[in-house]
User: What shape does this take?
Amino acid sequence: MSTISGNLENNDFLSFVESVSSSNLETFHSKAIAWLLNSLDRDNSWFEMLFKKVKTKVNDSVIHLGTIAEFKNHDLITLLQVENRLEIIFWENKIKADFHQVKLSKTFINNIDCKKINKNKIEDYISHWNRGISQPFYCQLRYYAKDNKKQIEWIKDIISKIRELEFKSSDINLNNIKLNWLILSPYDQNELETFNREQWIGIKTFAKSKDIICGDKNLLEEALIGQDPINWNFTTFEQLFSSLKFKDSKIVQNTYINYLRKENWFQTANKLNVSDNNVNDLQEWTVNSLFKVYESIIKNKNLSVEFNWSISGSSRSQHPLLNICFVEDLILFNDPFNDKNKFNRILDFESYKSKNNIPLVDKIICKLQLQGKSMKLQISHWDYNNVKLRKNRAKDYARIVTEKLTGRKIIKDNFEHRMNVWLSPTEFEVSKTNFPSTKTGFSFTLKEKSNHSQNQINKIPTVDKIIKFCCDVSALSHHKNR
Assistant: This one.
């Protein structure tokens, strides 16, 4: 039997893995990992290393009873026998690093066990921020919001599914099962919390009261009644799988591990090297270069901003995206829009209202958007995904927000001229105006004024120039508002 040693590019198994992995990245990896773990010997010492990812002090023997993928909306579920008890690990496989929000239905909220969860805190939080809860914390809330009977049924279903793998075990005591939560990603914990800060840690700048909870993590800690704080543990593909060894005869297993290496899911240690001297020599924004901008801005005490990341990009562009939001200097509108006749005619409030009240995060802001090869100054509602424009109102919206930003009237749709006058103290100018469609993302594509050299035209601006531009925009805002 042939092995996978040699040129990986010409390996048929690797070609097959690459082909089938492209349809749904997270689903493919979850099912591949489940198959991989189930192919190991049950008492393989690797499972002790896995268990140490969720328990810091482990001296007990660890036996793997089975791992299943894509069950009950969990990416992976692993059942371990640790001495005389069972441990379940719920995995979130976040190979894309982004966590989408899950909206809580009225049925979900109505079924919350009030003895375990403070329902009022959940409802206030959802109403205030006008959104759902990021997926990892939703998974935890979904389980802990159940009454005892439903929790036991939930665990029974999981164990029944894993029993289909024909594991051998003595009678299971459902009252002696411990739950663990593990996030798997190419990025480490600090980086993931940076990318998801808006959801996990919260937008403290927008909270007007000390009673307002900021961040999904804080919500669960405050809403749980009489239960220990719930924490997610973190590991990377490199930490978990780089030490996993197989015999040459294990062709498929070895091929998958080599595929992870080839696709750079192991490159975490080098991916975010913010001291990289080549970060200013790029033709488009990478995660590394965006992280360098982020690190530089948070060290600048003259800037007050919030960050909104999308590592996997957007529907229009798959490049990583960073929004640098001028939340204090450039909150253009900060009052309920339904009190303004001009916004009544432009924004579709019926799709935005919650219980006939406009949520408190009711702000139109200015932000610098870095993605792909472009740098844009964008004006949009903070709650971008939920606020829509009425039909054929794009230019009306653009006119109102541009006049508010620059302090000057727009005459005969001279948007670019008005913005270039406003931006004249900076090193950048408008190259294109981008009108919104149904959402409120009106933007100006920017270019460097001095960037006329042919061999410089394709390079993104340096980090220092981005920082200076942010400071300039902040200063222009202060000047306008004096």
Observations:
- The first strand starts at residue 62 and ends at 71.
- The longest helix spans residues 463-480.
- Confidence is low (pLDDT under 50) at residues 1-10.
